Amino acid sequence: MTAVVAIIHAGLAAAWVGGMAYSLFVVQPKLKKYFGKDQDGRETLTAVIASGNRWKVVGLIAAIAVSGIVLLLMNHDHWQVHAVKGLLLLIATGVFWYVSWRHWPRRVFATSAELPALQRRLVALATTMLGLAGLAFALGVLSVHL
Question: Average pLDDT over the chain, rounded to whole?
Answer without folding.
Answer: 93
